[in-house]
Amino acid sequence: MATQFDPNNAQNLVEIEKQFAVKAVEHAQTYWNLLEKVNPRDLKLTKIDDEIFEHAMKEFPELAEDNYAKLTVIDEDWMKSDSGKKRWRDFIQQYEKKVKDYNFGSLIRTDARQEYSETNTIFVTRIQFYVFEIARNRLGLNDRAHELAKEEAAKEKEKAEKEKARAEKEKTKKKKN
């Protein structure tokens, strides 16, 4: 008979950790691509964005303080303090049956005004990602990220076009010789 899985005593298996990391990175890349293509104020991340936003603002009123400072730049110490962990755990559990993968790990930008980078990223649960990104989108805090993503995409497109032109030139040159 199989024993019950106990997450508190589970060992971290390297391959499983890698798979979770890959999924988290893919999710972050997909979201960044969305920010490039869609005005964040028009972006809907779940079927219950309104509920998540209103519930988060009620449970975490400090998110609205100081011109939304804790939404613009995530205060990881505040989130991961003993009281923060308890409040978030209680909040997160309420979405167990409402949001798919509600407790799955996600990468989030700590500063909404910047792109994803090694120094601007932390690991949070999917519902925490939704709390911050839904609020950032609605409040215009992701407007700069939208512009950054569009600029980045334009640079990538220009680079690809130059590479294609260089390759064509090289191909033509070889045909002449």
List keywords for this structure.
7 helices; 177 residues; single chain; mainly alpha; 2 strands
Termini separation comes to 73 Å
Largest sheet: 2 strands, antiparallel
Instruction: Give the structural class.
Output: mainly alpha
The Rg value, from CA coordinates, equals 21 Å
Could you state the order of secondary-structure elements as H and E?
HHHHHEEHH
Q: What is the beta-strand fraction?
A: 5-15%
Query: Approximately how much helix is present in the residues?
Result: 55-70%
Mean of all residue-level pLDDT scores: 90
Tell me about this structure.
- The structure is a single chain.
- The chain is mainly α.
- It is built from seven helices and two strands.
- Strands 1-2 form a two-stranded antiparallel sheet.
- Helix 1 packs across helix 7 (143-176) and helix 2 crosses helix 6 (126-138).
- The protein is globular.
- The N and C termini lie far apart (73 Å).
